[in-house]
Amino acid sequence: MQREYLRQLPSHQRGPMTRGFAWKLHIDPPLLIGLLLIMGFGLFILYSASGEHADTLARQGFRFGAGFAAMFVLAQIPPRTYRFWTPVVFAIGLVMLILVLLVGTEAKGAQRWLSLPGIGRFQPSEIMKIACPAMMAWYFRERALPPKLKDIAAGLLIALLPALLIGKQPDLGTALLIAAAGLLALFMAGLSWRIILLAVIIAAVAAPLMYNFVLHDYQRNRVDTFLNPEADPLGTGWNIIQSKTAIGSGGLDGKGWLNGTQSRLDFLPESHTDFIFAVLAEELGLLGILALLGLYLFIIGRGLWISLQAQDVYSRLLGGSLTLTFFIYVFVNIGMVSGLLPVVGVPLPLVSYGGTSIVTLLASFGILMSIQTHRRLIAGTSSGI
Amino acid sequence: MRSHIHLRDHHREGQIFSNRLVAAIILVVLMTLILIGRMVWLQWAQYERFAILSEENRLQTQALAPPRGLIVDRRGAVLADNRPDFSLTVVPEQVKDIDATLAKISELIELNDEDVDRFLKIVRSRRRPWDPVPLRGRMNDEDLALIASSLHELPGVRISAEAIRRYPYDDLFSHVLGYVNRINVDDQARMDEASVANYAGTHFYGRTGVERYYENMLHGQVGYRKVETNARGRVLQVVEEQPPIPGTDLHLFLDLRTQKAAWDALGNRRGAVVAIDPRDGGVLAFVSRPGFNPNLFVTGISHKDYSGYREDHDRPLFNRALQGQYPPGSTLKPLIGLAGLQYDATNWSRTIRDPGIFKLPDTKRTYRDWKRGGHGIVDLHTAIVQSCDVYFYDTGVKLGIDNYHEFLDKFSLGRLTGIDIPGEVSGNLPSREWKRGARREAWFHGDTVNASIGQGYVLATPVQLALSTAMIARNGVHLTPRVALENNVIVPGMDVNLKHPNDWARMHSAMEDVIHGARGTARVVGYGSKYRVAGKTGTAQVFSVAEDEEYDESEISERLRDHALFIAYAPADNPAIAIAVLVENGSHGGSTAGPVARAVMDAWLLNKNGELDVPPPLAETVQAQNTATSETPKKSADAGSPTP
Questions:
Q1: Domains of chain B, CATH where assigned
Q2: Which one of A64, A139, A167, B601 has the largest count of C-beta atoms within 10 Å of its C-beta?
């Protein structure tokens, strides 16, 4: 009787009828398998890219462990708790971003780090990668969709305020990614296509102005290099020329694992961090790339499926934007390594070596798992607190 | 309307979200297709291009310089070889700031401007990337230690050992061997494409002398080594190697002992000695003094050393034997005598009376004999033995300049002998045409008179004099002087055929009496000799003396004294050496140049015990060696050796 009723409900209002062991651990097995496969693939490439350095592999493995722990813990927390704490975390994030600008630690010409006694250094912008789309989801959770003009303005503020603070550090890449994460939530909320079109036109007009009046010199250099890498082949253009050479010389099936000359003879810079994709492309060729993209698409597909199944607006918007942000990372990294986009220092998610980004990424998948495994049998009619 | 805001349409919201999700999926798929398209473009469409770029990154081709051929004398003594020298080289690709690096190096060791200029010139020219560019050679132990201890602060700077040329006998062979020095941009500009490739790894180039003439042979063929390097140019492995083909060793006709004798006999006087083996044209000794030390030039001569040579009044860089043009004086008399016989201007029985002066008919001008009062009644034999000027004035005028020119021309006078040393000059054998062209004047009888005793417009180099002497010794057989056995350049020329072949023997006998006769002008040469010598003395005027003025040699400065000349061949009955000696400002051919010739002939013809032991011609020696070593007789037949 009850089952019959449930069957008649639309899928997003209906919880799973069988709950297994994984469900009780709040783990989504398809997502977990996808993540494990891609991280295994990543370690495989990293072994070659680091010059068969077991230490590097061990440190990366340790980060994966930490990330998995964060993912598992976050998966236990129900979405309503996230929803409750979202404004607080967002506010704390903003405060820390301001603190970074005032008392942050400088590294490589940018103030990105905040030193906390006892905890060590960390980048507050990493928090924002989740807090910003979450805040957007929180804001639109009980407002009528599609959003009204006033709400759009508020949404823009939520997306652009942290982005501006991060851009000030300056860390253009992260700023753009966080803005993108927020704006993706806005898009999922049903932002009118007309406004999107208008925004694209404004961006196209604003880009040259930004280039001339807003960007720092080093950022302008990156854009120049992107537009014409051959202008200074031994200087700023070196990275992108060597990276394209590595990818192109890989051909269909690559030069073979551990046999990439570009990376192993040091022609390819940052081969185990931002440019690791070029190592993969050189050694495993187009087939290896298709395998990697297949794994990414599988994870993204699963993330979107979870978002579709989510039972409240907050979860849907947050899940959707986190998943799409993940895709943006993939796209921007591969785009920059292959010369489609300027070099902006975005790592290839779960494959590039190092950074807090691995923990943040796995944490966001923890939230997705939470959304998936905390669904009630019948979705509530109210998504209010 | 207001109530609508609070009423939520969950179904519609779900619909919106689903639609946006579908739009997002479409976007994700499209963007993924863009990435895949990009990869297909790079890895499939552009694969060839990037594969080549990647290979070019990885593989560097290094040129391997061939070891330069050795130069040995006829008995195998090494006259030029290669030894390791430590030099400082820089790979410009690995240096961030060339000027700063140069400044740092010059704080440690001495760098002169020439080194730096040459270095920068190469760096700025079109060259093979990653090739080390030499900066300074001749690093001594102290320099090596200083640089080696700071090498870590000098990326791209290396100490490298390279083989450099060494001339063990210093100045002894300077004017015949010449020298090599660093190859420069101009040398490369003159080369064709193939040569530029062949010299890709070579740092030295034959500059003068035999080193220059046989550059192609001595250099050899460049080799290549394909190496895999990393981005910093460090060689990781050798992928492919084609070793260079070493340069050919050069065997010279020169004889170390004879050369040394000539060198020592000249002593500190300025002069030249050229000795030729009349049997094959091989040059046995080739000396011009003063000489220079060719070792100083190899890695770049210092300014001080160079200006020392340039400013020396004795002109040590001037190759007197090859480029010095002197009036041959009386050494030309045997040839003029032969010309007179050939054209019936004289014969062996004709005599004239020599009163000490010669008057041309129709003019008042008189020409003096070197001997005051004259030689009395003289025939051709006596005129040669005593070097009677008036006899040859008379013969010359009867002969006429046209016949004179035609005959002497056959002995390579006035033309290049074709000796295998670059820079030879032709001297001058005057003729009517020559005077009209060069002096815009008609030929006068007086010119013929002067030419008849080898003065006036006649100029010859010591090489020409030695060659014509060798041809006299060989009864007019045409010869080309050769320094190296490997020379196969045939200089066209015809043998001299006399109307009366017996005239050769009679001239030989007259020349023998110059040395061994009771009244010969070079009796000093023949004193105590174990073999018979035939020769002729000569003096070449440096300073013209007015016709009736007395010439007092003690009053004029040493530099204005006559040059002493002497030509000879020996043994007279079976000549194995023909020689020309010039001593600048040496006054008398017989007394100054003669003993030099005797020392050289002794060195060649006598063995260590002082016994006459005439060495065989080099070709026979080599042939004997070849037959001894060759296993198949057919091979030597192919090589064109005469059948027994």
A1: 60-251 (3.90.1310.10), 256-302+318-483+496-619 (3.40.710.10)
A2: B601
